[in-house]
Design brief:
alpha/beta; 8-stranded mixed beta sheet; 10 helices; 8 strands; elongated
Length: 340
């Protein structure tokens, strides 16, 4: 029973094991190197900065190193690709880079299972660690040959990157000058950021309450969404009605404004005569008591502002005139009777 369980477990995990450790759709390619440095087993195999496999085995083949590469068949590496051992960074881990040499067209055929990349198409690109090792040996008592190796390695590292390195150094110099000139501002900014973070830390409770209140407000608005929708629709209907009313009453409004303008014009033209009449009336009221002797005088002044000539008939005007005469006669009788 135990044997059956082990067999079934092995059968079930075989595909997973093969997929994880290079099984399935993969090919095996050997590359012959004169020097592999500290390339480890299971290092990555990349093409165009994309991982396409891993190093499966490294063993000595005469005076050279034979490196077995497990490559995903879907990578479709041209058969004339070269294998270069590079570093991910100046002091990073090593990997095998498969690429077609610059200026060479990719071959129409692809690498197949069992192919061998010859020594002529393999190399190890020196890194900073190699230069440091050589420099260490030189400082420990090396010779001019070691120094030449260091210089050669350094030149190999920067070869083809002179303009880029020069631009980087120029920008770094400009950046350092700017930072040096703005050092107090940078320090103040860092201090202000620290104070701001402390304020935020001290106000955690207030921020939490504010967020909770915002959530409650959002909940209330969500609950009242139907009422808000009805309110908006009502406002829209009211605006439509007002617009229709304004359109319908526009002629009448225009006529009323024109009539009001005529009235205002008439008032403005008669303002001077009205001022003169009021001034004369004031003078008359001052001089009238002085012109009539007596102990007691009652003066009634009646100001009638009307245009009877244009708005009344002849009989109406005669009746109004008789009324005014009777009032004046009564006034004179009262005045002269009291004076006598």
């Amino acid at each position: 029973m135990r044997r059956l369980a082990v067999v079934m477990l092995a059968f079930m995990t075989a595909p997973l094991f093969g997929a994880c450790f290079g099984g399935g759709r993969a090919i095996s390619v050997n590359a012959i190197f004169a020097d592999i440095g500290d390339l480890p087993r299971f290092a990555n195999v990349q093409s165009s900065d994309v991982k396409v496999g891993s190093v499966r085995n490294i063993h000595l083949d005469g005076y050279h190193a034979r490196v077995t590469l497990r490559i995903d068949s879907s990578a479709k590496i041209p058969s004339n690709a070269e294998a270069l051992i590079r570093s991910t960074s100046l002091l990073g881990e090593k990997f095998v880079d498969l690429r077609v040499p610059p200026g060479v067209a990719p071959a129409p055929t692809l690498l197949r299972d069992g192919d061998v990349i010859p020594l002529a198409r393999t190399a190890r690109i020196p890194g900073l660690d190699d230069a440091l090792v050589k420099l260490g040996r030189l400082l420990e008592g090396g010779n001019a040959a070691d120094l030449a190796t260091v210089i050669h390695s350094s030149a190999t590292i920067v070869r083809g990157r002179e303009e880029a390195l020069g631009e980087i150094f120029s920008r770094l110099r400009t950046l350092t000058d700017v930072f040096a000139a703005r050092a107090p501002d940078v320090a103040d900014a860092i201090t202000n950021l620290d104070a701001a973070f402390r304020s935020l830390a001290n106000g955690r409770d207030a921020i939490g309450r504010s967020l909770a209140s915002s959530a409650d407000a959002a909940t209330i608005l969500a609950d009242q969404q139907a009422d808000l929708d009805r309110l908006v629709r009502g406002l829209d209907n009211a605006s439509s009605i007002l617009a229709k009313y304004g359109t319908a009453t526009r002629p009448a409004t225009d006529r009323a404004l024109k009539d009001l303008r005529l009235v205002l014009d008439k008032v403005m033209t008669t303002t001077g005569d009205l001022n003169k009449a009021l001034t004369s009336l004031a003078s008359f009221t001052d001089l009238w008591p002085k012109a009539i002797p007596g102990d007691y005088i009652q003066l009634d002044v009646v100001l009638v502002l009307s245009d009877m000539a244009r708005t009344s008939s002849a009989s109406t005007r005669a009746a109004a005139a008789s009324v005014e005469l009777r009032r004046l006669r009564s006034l004179s009788d009262l005045m002269y009777g009291a004076a006598r």
